[in-house]
Amino acid sequence: MAQDEWSEDQFFLKWYDVDSRRINPEIYSKFHHHYCDEETKDFINYSKNISYAKHVFDGFMTVFLYPFFGSTSRNGILNRGTMFVASKSLFHLLINFCHQKSTLLDIGAGDGNVTQCMSGIFNEVYATECSMPMKNKLESRGYTVLDINGWKDKEFDVISCLNVLDRCEAPLQLLQDIYNSLKKKGGLLVLALVLPYHGSVEYANEWKPQRQPLPIQGCCLELQLNSLVKDVLTPLGFRLNMVTKVPYLCSGDLNASYYSLSDVLLSLTVDCEVND
């Protein structure tokens, strides 16, 4: 193996490492140690191969569109800022805890790139999104796009909420709505959240504090993971099946070919006894 390949692989390993001594033993018993699989490497290579001319054009158009659109809509219009959370194989591992896989709702689905990693095993795929350009992309992929509040009177086998809780006004209420919309026999939530937690909401081109931030405690990813499960998810009625740590990747710009944040990715089942 060449030296630069070895160095890159060593760098990738840090994306998945955790300090097991800081994680609650019960939570750690459900921890899945993942790795930089082929789909993740493919996304990194895709990001590295975006042309210089494309980045220059996007930079110019971003300045032009700035007064009229927020960052999510600008990305949708320019077909840039594609996100990657996990490979199909990892998503299938997380979803496997659900025996009935008929309906999927992906909340805050963006351009549908991540939705596509999960959608193949479901009969019906629904999505929500605030940005109109992103809604158009989701519809072009064949997904049924629901109104931002139009899903709450429906019931789903699986709901995915990937990196949305730190970008919405009231994440606790959103989690409660998700619980209410999951089938009570085997309903499954696939949840991703960037840790350490920093909640903020985009209004046009401004970022403002959340109205109802999550009560997460701790100074590092591992301690905040403990608090997320103990102080947020368990009291709401979710039971942890599996958790892993992955990089939350975004294709880049002239400054970097891609960007990454640390994500925790959880599979959670509705625990009916909690809210009975």
Structural features, described:
This protein is of the alpha/beta class. 38% of the residues lie in helices and 22% in strands. The chain is built from eleven helices and ten strands. The chain has helices spanning 3-16, 25-28, 38-48, 52-65, 71-78, 88-95, 113-119, 132-140, 171-181, 221-236, 272-275; strands at residues 83-84, 103-107, 124-127, 144-145, 158-162, 188-194, 200-203, 206-209, 238-251, 258-270. The protein has an eight-stranded mixed beta sheet with strand order 1-9-10-6-5-2-3-4, with helices on both faces. Strand 9 and strand 10 form a beta hairpin. Helix 5 (71-78) crosses helix 8. The longest helix is centred in the C-terminal third of the chain and has 16 residues, at 221-236. It is globular, with a radius of gyration of 19 Å.
Chart the SSEs and their pairings:
Elements: H1 3-16, H2 25-28, H3 38-48, H4 52-65, H5 71-78, E1 83-84, H6 88-95, E2 103-107, H7 113-119, E3 124-127, H8 132-140, E4 144-145, E5 158-162, H9 171-181, E6 188-194, E7 200-203, E8 206-209, H10 221-236, E9 238-251, E10 258-270, H11 272-275
Parallel strand pairs: 2-3, 2-5, 3-4, 5-6
Antiparallel strand pairs: 1-9, 6-10, 7-8, 9-10
Helix pairs in contact: 5-8
